[in-house]
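Thread: "does anyone have the structure for this chain?"

Original post by V.I.:
We have the sequence but no experimental structure in hand. Need at least a predicted one for the grant figures.
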Amino acid sequence: MKREVISTENAPKAIGPYSQAILTKFFVFTSGQIPINPKSGKIEATTIKDQVRQDLLNLSAVLEAAGTNLNNIVKLTVFMTDLSGFAQLNEVFMEFFPEKQPARSAVQVSKLPLDAMVEIEAIAALE
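Reply from O.Q.:
Generated one for you, tokens below.
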């Protein structure tokens, strides 16, 4: 089975022993992205909406490094520290996915790395 590690400087470096993504023959499996600005290496976004936007920009960079893009996402998993921000999450998702939205799960967790409010992982098809 083809299994290639994907890494890009355009997304935050892994903060542990994992890869930004793994490319297989038909799919890319990303690690969860938290809203770290890859230029500063810090979480700068202070609202749910801005954190979701940064997460999706980070996912976009990882997917592009793997040869695909946000339009080819088939499944997203969202981890939130407070599901009361679900409506704001949906607003940002409509900006990024106005049509043909991917399948998605959202779960509330007690804590995320670096005190992020939102973490998102994806599975995307290759073009």
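V.I.: this helps a lot. The chain has two helices and eight strands.
O.Q.: and The beta strands are 4-6, 21-23, 27-30, 36-37, 42-43, 73-80, 103-108, 118-125.
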